[in-house]
Amino acid sequence: MSGVTASTRAPSPQVDTATPRVAVTLPCYNEAATIASVIEAFRQALPEAEIYVFDNNSTDGTADIARRAGARVRTETRQGKGYVVQRIFADVEADIYVMADGDGTYDASMAPTLIELMKRNHVDMVVGTRANVTRDAGRGGHAFGNRVFNILFNTMFGRQFTDIFSGYRVFSRRFAKSFPAVSSGFEIETEMSVHACQIGVPTLERPTPYGVRHEDSASKLRTFRDGLRILGLFMTLAKETRPAAFFGAIGIVLALLALGLSVPLFITYFETGLVPRVPTAILATGLIIIGTVTAVCGLVLDSLARARVEAKRSVFLSYPPGDWQA
């Protein structure tokens, strides 16, 4: 298989137990008003689980409150949810990972259902899609952006997900340990979804209640700033995962632009035998050349992208499934 070598890192051995180890992981930034109740809710829903709070430089005492509530607290000093997720997948050892937010908007009582869906269907990721997401503290911009980006995702990467921004997810160990996370911020959920579509990770979705944010808890998502970052990630991932389509589209646009500039030149030439607008003719010729080179580059990069997909898939499969997936 191209792009894959025998030196692929061997996975850490799993503990052979009848009951899988469950870790609840809660990325947090200034969630002092809600974190204690979120920890207690997950403790009641999953009494056998280890609960981790990953504090991302909170200034309101979130970490201390989480410790007093009985959670294991870790600190990620690089600001951004993507960095926190990278740290979670690197540091936490478990067979099943439950990830939610510390703001209390996700229903902890649904966690056993999501885990059971994963076990029963032998999948590696279950997404708790958000019902009533349009009520997100009255922020209509978030709801509109959510719809637009989901449509864009389905168009570009496949119709595997209906809520790519949901932060309520359950992962298998082999997904967590093989996911090559590079995003730094809120776009991390998009990266997870694209990765799952790209290498064919079996996934499921399950609608879950989505509550209104606590009045003392402020949203960390900035509609325009983070929207632009997510859009930029879409373009980057399209370039990386579908280069033939990405660069081919650019080539077609340039060719159409050249054609539009050339039509009047051809009409004049056939009528008079002259080409009076030489600069326009040079520009049209240059656009055709650039468009052709761009499209050819896309075809070459597509072969490299396929090799990368094979390598990622190989790393994913190098981690054995849990006993509950057998």
UniProtKB/TrEMBL annotation:
InterPro entries listed in its UniProt record: Glyco_trans_2-like, Glycosyltransferase_2, Nucleotide-diphossugar_trans
Domain Glycosyltransferase 2-like: 24-176
Annotated TM spans: 244-270, 282-304
PANTHER family: RFBJ PROTEIN, UNDECAPRENYL-PHOSPHATE 4-DEOXY-4-FORMAMIDO-L-ARABINOSE TRANSFERASE-RELATED
One term of GO molecular function: transferase activity
Cell cycle among keywords: no
Native source species: Henriciella mobilis
Protein's UniProt name: Glycosyltransferase
Keyword terms of this UniProt record: Membrane, Transferase, Transmembrane, Transmembrane helix
